[in-house]
Design a protein that fits this description.
about 160 residues; mainly beta
């Protein structure tokens, strides 16, 4: 991992994240005006050729493909940690998801996808890049499902 850019999640139930002392050059990015904490999501910049592995032990709740910003194909996975029922570890910007609902995953061992998704546009964390082209990032957040989420403004895709 090259860098971690913390930012505001769009989900009201997202928990604050703290970097480990060994985390790769962590930085808190400027506000996204979402009304959530400054470190409720993490964009983890990583080598485009490295497999994306499970960050926690747990059970996959759901996974699949979705359309990002009404235009781009992207994959996701949501894991319930084994020791924290009611929490969801959500990851997006992974390419070629290999796990499905009900699968058990092991932190650092289970491959979720063969690589991160290389997005065709510059994201906020890309502005901090150390090389061209910017490496892709995997987005991670931990959501407390007991906290309801406000509907997002904008209403989705036309």
């Amino acid at each position: 991992m090259e860098r971690i850019g913390f930012h505001q999640s769009s989900h009201d139930g997202a928990r604050m994240l703290d970097p480990l002392p060994t985390a790769a050059d962590p930085v808190t990015l400027t506000t996204r005006n979402r009304g959530t904490g400054a470190r409720t999501s993490a964009d983890m910049v990583m080598d485009p050729q490295v497999e994306v592995r499970a960050p926690v032990d747990g059970t996959v709740i759901r996974s699949g493909t979705y359309v990002l910003y009404c235009k781009y194909s992207d994959d996701f996975v949501v894991i319930e940690p084994v020791d924290r029922p009611g929490l969801e570890v959500k990851m997006i910007h992974i390419d070629g998801v290999r796990v499905k609902a009900g699968d058990r995953v092991v932190a650092g061992k289970t491959v979720l996808a063969p690589r991160p998704t290389q997005l065709p546009f510059e994201s906020q964390v890309d502005r901090l890049r150390s090389a061209d082209p910017a490496w892709p990032h995997v987005h991670l957040e931990v959501v407390d499902t007991a906290i309801p989420d406000r509907p997002s403004p904008g209403g989705g895709c036309p």
